[in-house]
User: Fold these one by one.
Assistant:
Number 1:
Amino acid sequence: MKVVTAKEMMEIDRITIEDVGIPQVVLMERAGLAVAKRIMEKFSPQPITVICGGGNNGGDGLVAARELYNNGFCVQVFMAAELASLSDPCRFQLELLKKYNAEILTKPIVRESDIVGNIIVDAMIGTGLTKQVKDTMAKTIDYINSSGCFIFSVDIPSGISSDTGEILGRAVKASCTVTFGLPKRGHLLHPGRDYTGELFVEDIGFPRSLLTDESITCETVEKNLVSMFLPNRPDYSYKGNYGHVLFIGGARGKTGAIVMAAKAAMRSGSGLVTIGVPSSLLDSYQSRVTEEMTLPVADKGKGRFSKKALTEILDFAEKRCDIIAIGPGMGVDTDTVELVRELIVNSPVPIVLDADGINSLSALKYQDRINILNTSPTPVTITPHTAEMARLVLEGKTSNLSPKCMEIEKDRVGEASKFSAHSTSYLILKGVPTITADPEGNTFINPTGSPAMATSGAGDVLTGIISSFSGQGLPPLYAALLGVYLHGMAGEIAADKIGVYSTIASDLIDYIPLAINYLTGTEK
């Protein structure tokens, strides 16, 4: 499903009203009725307070109040705006509601004593908010949040940025939100995601062609989409049909990362997996792998990669593997920087770049990073978390990444899209939620995941899953979307079975099979 900004939704509204010819009052009527319907599905008639602003969001709330009043609810309406400042559609709905004899009060601040024990409908601000909520509106929101009441927000919780999910001063923490046409980015990005509660997306008559228009480049990833990406497993097949992944990483002190990535790839269906490690560490790996194979490559002593490993890796890739995953536990020094540079520029197969692979690339000048990625002969998928992303986009060594990290977190979709387009790489910005971006400017918000995944090694598991599906023949974007979705689903299953506190990264590997079964509909 497409996900829109406030500007994109306003354009859908405008075209529907001006070009298609559906009157604004009709759209408002259908929106208010959709809100009332959702409330009546959850609650039998009882006291309810509808708090309305002076714009079209308030008009939606007034329609809902009228419908609820007509269905036996004891409705109290507060107009939290000067009556002289109401929009024309809002004023029309207010005059209509007056004819039903519902209780309508005008108060600049709605206090907790006004609403205690009632269901609350928040119809104060809506999607057009661009400035900080202050003064009387902020006090009303504080009272609403402290009331302990069940809260329905109309379109988006008042105080949340539709574009970024940012709290603009104060925001209503809704139990449910009823939005119209399409979800807004602020519903799915934190902290707005936490304030939205259960989200309902209602059809109120916008033309389908507008809701699916290619100019809307952000989407949410859905089960029925990624389930189509799972590679077929015909009866007549063998391990060579399902890809050979070469992992490069696992320097001294970080040997677990590459083992987890390799095992995740095996669990995701890879036919063959090889781990390329510094030759002096080969014996320690031989005792830890079972299904996986090993490739000892040149090191410069003490279990660190040498740039001389390049020829061995490229030769192996040319003859035997379908994808190279670079970075888990690799370490960062002058040799890894040179090795990563040359692998990206010369690899005969696609690359997944993670962890220290990203950090080695980030040690180069910014324009060199971009040039290398743009001249890669094969697709490159990059999987940074927020701090790695900050290093990737900043010039030179930076001792304090916090300002850039905060900037990235405020606009995860925009930051991912910008770098992906600039570098012509596929970018997976890990976090809550994880964002996938492609070089054409499309972005995808992943809905799966759990706090249980905030544990060391979870990113290595994701690298293994994505690399596996890429090795099995999926295009980079499909491998990324499927891998991120399954990774999050494995985290949800692990949290359910083990708990959010005790889950570790290797648990995610164990639950990849159940996550795949969920997609195929074969879960027990």
Note: The two ends are 28 Å apart (CA to CA).
Number 2:
Amino acid sequence: MSNPSAVSTFVVWDYVVFAGMLLISAAIGIYYAVVDRAKQSSKDFLIGGRTMTAVPVALSLTASFMSAVTVLATPAEIYRYGAIFSIFSISYLFVIVICSEFFLPVFYRLGITSTYEYLEMRFNKVVRLCGTLLFIIQTVLYTGIVIYVPALALNQVTGFDLWGAVVSTGVVCTFYCTMGGLKAVVWTDVFQVGIMVAGFVSVIIRAIVIRGGLTPILQDAYDGGRINFWDFDVNPLRRHTFWTITVGGSFIWIYIYGVNQSQVQRYIACKTRLQAKMSLYINLLGLWIIVGCATLAGLSMYSVYRDCDPWTAGKVKALDQLIPYLVMDILRDFPGVPGLFVAAAYSGTLSTVSSSINALAAVTVEDLIRPQFTSLTDTKLSWISKGTTLLYGLMCIGMAGLASLMGGLLQAAITIFGIAGGPLLGLFVLGIFFPWANSVGALVGVIAGFALSLWVGIGSQMYPQPLAYSRPLNLSTAGCNVSFTFPDVNLTDVVYLPTMPPLAMMETTMQVGVTLAEERSVVVDNWYSLSYLYFSTVGTLTVVAVGLVISIFTGGRKQYVNPEMMFLAKEDFPKCSFKCHKDLSTDNKSETGQWKSQNSLVTDMGTINAAFTDIELNYPETNERTNGIRL
């Protein structure tokens, strides 16, 4: 198309398709509430009774990854900066292998519900509480923004009612999470991932028809410099290169798949460890498919608008609105299909928010309520879990309302979410890979790591990275038949989607001609210009480095570490080359030859360390689930 046309708005069939997606999602929640009504334990509600299989869990993991960010922001990223973003496919391979072989076995052996239980087992209650509170704060902020920001982007382009979408998606998501627990979340994700792929495919097929085939699309992308996969510049200030994506991106996603409660809670719900590992590897195929769809959608959008960019022509206010604009432009003659794409975007929102709500309920019950009220029965804990899920759902809807009033603070909130993952990952790396790390080192390390990540994250928002480091590709308005004018952009209206770099903020600064009057210092030009993909890396490495140094200076680990909490298998642990201040010997074992608890040396087989008193030994007939916490 040579000229962005006046796009249409939603029609009745579009609303029907969208409403159908919400109704089916709610029906899945009702189904599992009825089917599992006889199961009243909190374990059944929060982790599905550990009866899930690999395929639905894998699709659920994929749906959680494929949020509205992927549907709306990733094609716009490729449209503006080229297909180098697809190099994330390489980092996903590293991430899945590392998480399945090093992190998953530890959490599955211990049979825990909340990943932060591990922090108390390995360190102490203070470290566990720090991790729990940091997760709760960042997740509540994140989920509220995930509900509101896509609704704003779609409303400004499609005319879809903003608050109708916010409230309806929030209410439906809260409903099926509260009614059906983790099983409802997983199976709803399976349905929603199908909707999301269908939305992408509809856009790609229509673009191929318009452009006369896939070859012209790829040729246009090549001519426009969008086929830019291999950039091996090692400069850490460059926004996207092979190294920033494969190294920095791997740290980000290891946090998400390795230790983040929302993802870990899914695969530890599998009935065997083999099924859990299979779910991660099947999920890898899903990630590759999604990245491929998003990349092709972005290249198709560039081919359609190669001569008349809607953004620089003032048709949209922010890059994140480009893909909804394309949908309403090229699919307006197909009633219901634009509604399918909007349903795809909101399916991403539902899958992300539902996993977050379920994870918030799990950590609240397991980390804050159960340890303080040890006399609560499973039935009462199940009702508390449902009540907590409802409460967090309402909080996220309220956070979405607050997000609409925050304006420029949205960037700060999202930055806090992004940089919190690195320090949390560092805590688990300390515990799993370094047996001499102690609780003092862990606590000081996480404070130092979070402070440093927060410093660079906020600084990068105050002083946007120079365009020389981001190298946006050329966009043309030659075919628009209009004189070039910058759009009238209100900074508080800029859509900025989670986990993505400050694209909108950088582009808006360029559009309205804002320049920083103050002289840029060395810190600003270097430290604050660090690629956003390295923020998590900075946090993780700082926690590990500071934690190890402080641990050494405070005497290291005084007690023996339970081998089940390390990445090595129990039978391999005595063969390792490192020492835990004393050689591992038979003095550290019970009479049966099994390892004793990590916090104290018990004197007989009938005494169990206090760190394990709150852990239920479910499924005693399955040795794989209990051997990490019994003598």
Note: The CA atoms of residues 55 and 603 lie 45 Å apart.
Number 3:
Amino acid sequence: MGNTIEEVKKRRTFAIISHPDAGKTTLTEKFLLYGGAINLAGSVKGRKAAKHAVSDWMEIEKERGISVTSSVLQFNYDGFCINILDTPGHQDFSEDTYRTLMAADSAVMVIDGSKGVEAQTIKLFKVCVMRGIPIFTFVNKMDREARDPFELVDEIENVLGIRTCPINWPIGSGKNFKGVYDRNTETISRFIASDNGHKIESVEAKLGDSNLDDLITKEFHDQLVDDIELLDGASDEFDLEKVRAGKLSPIFFGSALTNFGVETFLQHFLEMTTSPLARKSGDVEVDPFSEDFSAFVFKIQANMNKAHRDRIAFMRICSGKFNAGMEAFHVQGNKKIRLSQPQQMMAQERKHVEEAYAGDIIGIFDPGIFSIGDTLCTASNKVKYAGIPTFAPEHFARVRQVDTMKRKQFMKGIEQIALEGAIQIFQEFNTGMEEIIVGVVGILQFEVLQYRLQNEYNVEIRMEQLPYEHVRWIENEDIDVSALSVTSDTKKVKDFKGNPLLLFTHPWSIQTALERNEGLILGEVSDN
């Protein structure tokens, strides 16, 4: 038991969130460099670059230079075992990000110093607030022209609605970027650009000391004195309890691409965060230090290795210790199963795992029995974690395979991709599966679906966009769906699990359905 407690104490599990192109994947790679997990950071610039981000594994990600799936990466640093969940930045994949945040204990929010708070950041941030998880802010790209740091801090506070506490403060930006001032240690990390790159040096800096004029110029020295005086008087004081409660976000300035400020950020982050927290099973809090193993599935990915045609269920361990080949009770399936082929990921690289602890993320072979949100536990402690809601799709298309002889591959592919949660499948209420309607949260998911069916299942498809924009699950039990009175542009369908729902073209059609059918209850998410 003692070893389990020590191992769990070392764990830190966090997600990295940002708007696309803010530098999230670059920051992730710099963390891995410090942990010795990789020797050379990839480049996500350009479609034809020879190197690709270590955390981007799907071919379409490499071609487009974006992350469309969440990656799970583990490395050791300074006595800690760190699990990073790298999330898709593109808004069309926000549902995958939401599920990933369910598995994290804290979040690192990356903000572009020239663009500030962007649309996707707001959406993801709200999910963090909803879960009450601590948020650490890294303002990136200070080596490029950036906005006034006070403006950035105000925007974070006003748009996201969280108080902030800058731990360090930038001195200039772009060509005039001189470095950052650490408010606690009263030191300056100087950023010194040169023809063949840059170098970084740390110097003690008493504000007002004339030596600083030579190091960062008198103009920037005077500006820094004014800035820090203003910060000391106006900004929130650092309060670790508020940080851990998700009410105060520590802010750090730096440049992930040039590796400036990244290690400082990582060190502070590890000091401020805690080991894995207790998770709720009904009204009971499950202690992560308990000897009893428990975990929940938050992601399923098919065909990570095309040659093996495999399906991996990613699970977050919430308590106890996992041993390779152990038996666990699958709560939703109501039976014992052996957890086989356990592995941890480094993008497309995998390593076999013999043991893992609360806070760790592992992938296990899924023969087709798991769904997102499923709980696994030792039979003695029968816990059941809350399910992960299914979001209402906003875009719909009728999907058909071009070659009718490939119906079997088409159905297998579309069902497997649907089980991952990337798409949702619907069918006409009183027909078979000949007519398939696919719903997605973001329109780019259609492109990913088409790409994956072609590349992983050798099936070419045609898609016909449909006008529906709203979906509502029918929550009444024992209701005759065919007898419901709805407008002519409303479609009655059922989801993959047979739950009845309605597809609407206009919001007023939803209201009409409720008015015409007394007692009808419609819901925007499905927890089934």
Note: The first strand starts at residue 11 and ends at 18.
Number 4:
Amino acid sequence: MAKEVVFGVWDYIIMTATMVASVLIGIYFRFSGGKQKTNEEYLMANRNMSIFPVAVSLMASFMSAITLLGVSAENYYNGMQFIVINISYGIATPLISRLYLPVFFGLQKTSTYEYLELRFGPHIRLLASLTYTLQMVLYNGIVLYAPAIVLESVTGLDRLISILVVGLACTFYSTLGGMKAVLFTDLLQSFLMLGAVFSVVVFASVQLGGFDKIFIIAQERGRLDFSNFTLDPTVRHTWWSLIFGGCFTYMSLYAVNHTQVQRLLTVSTLSRSQQCLWWSWPVLSVLSIVTCISGVAIFAVYKDCDPLAAGSITATDQLMPYYVVDAMRVAPGLAGLFVAGIFSASLSTISASCNALAAVTLTDYVSRWINVNPSYIPWLTKLAACAFGLVFLALAFLAEYLGGLFQAAYTIFGAVGGPLLGMFTLGMFTTFANEKGVSVALLSGMAMTLWMNFGGPRPPIQKLPVSVEGCAHNVTLSSASVTNNSDYFYLYRISYMWTSPLGFVWVIIVGTIVSLIWRQEQPWEKAGRLHPDPALFTPPLANILRKRNQKTSVQCELLKPQENHD
């Protein structure tokens, strides 16, 4: 996509104001309250946050610029079937709220992976935390790089300068202000994300002569087909793959991913934490649904001259920024609002990761291996947060030269989630699973999901037909080559939406079999206790264990008089 400067004075004012506001929030929380003197305040916001900013932050750290650009392009080229995934969020939320969240909230640990050592042992904790660190570092480097391409397209500003400006600003405020700064900047940035996507839908509606025209045109061109109920796992998007796959992906992020769990522990009670989770669902769904609509809205505008086929863009992710360059330049400030929204999506994801990775580093690595003076820990945590921000910057610069890394990082993020969810589920829902069993299951599960996603050759993604009949210059639409998917290895044909469920099921089955065959002393047995701590298990199982413990205690008390009599 050719560079073309379309930014005006108002656009630069909006973009600059976004950065300045984020930095000022970081400075404010550095010098207010407890002034970040303890890790409890820096990493957990003293566990006294209000519900609304936490709920919005949960959504903001889930939605990145990759998501906004990718989902809009998905709906443009493949129709609105993807919107069905929002149903899965509603199914997953009560499961997370009632079955997983009470365990983490009851333990009140800084790192999510501390649970694994309590339940299984130290080795699986280290393995899981290293896996999390690797996927988040890789993913966030690409999250920072992706919107730099957008800013270059819309403003003509060199992408390397964009990476430096955004990366340094984000590192500064997240390092300086800690969790409170991250949560409140997420709040600001979420409104900008919504504003950016809404502006595209509104402007397209005005162009087309009404909001209803978006769906009329989409229906005529086959973009509103919701009839795919096939059970075939090789079909990319169906009702079943979107609902089940979306449910497991959502749970892997909100139920056991440290970035999200850490936010859910910044409030004072379990009830408030559950409310945060419940409120984040409609906020996320609103942004997701509007982003889906924005994709078909842009399609309705370009129904007779597809930008990709016409050569105006070189990749589908450039679609939304191209629309801003091509159509929205006439309205002062709209381009600036869009760019601010896209960068806000990245800022919220990166700042969340800086803080979360700092927590994992100090808790899972430094504090376990080095005896650190407690007064130094807050400074070391800030140093770790800053270091991760700089690592993201370095990876963002490298991403320009590693073309396949963008898709690779996103794939890793999804492929690791299912096995990790399976591992935590085995720990919380069974008493027989042991460290050896879950270690074998996790490693083999991730090997399987990564093989599925990276193996090749893979069949090309089929898109719905587009037109170039209305293009101003002569464009010939190249005929799509017909491929026979059955010629490809079956595992490489399975939809990416099934990766997380398959990884989850693999870990559950393999972990169960290996644990039952390869017996090992559980942590409570090593400590000389007969029964496990109910706090380590999901509430339904915890209630059973408590009743069993009470029954055992009563029986012991009844036996005592008989022993004295004898």
Note: Residues 9-417 form a domain with the Sodium/glucose cotransporter fold (CATH 1.20.1730.10).
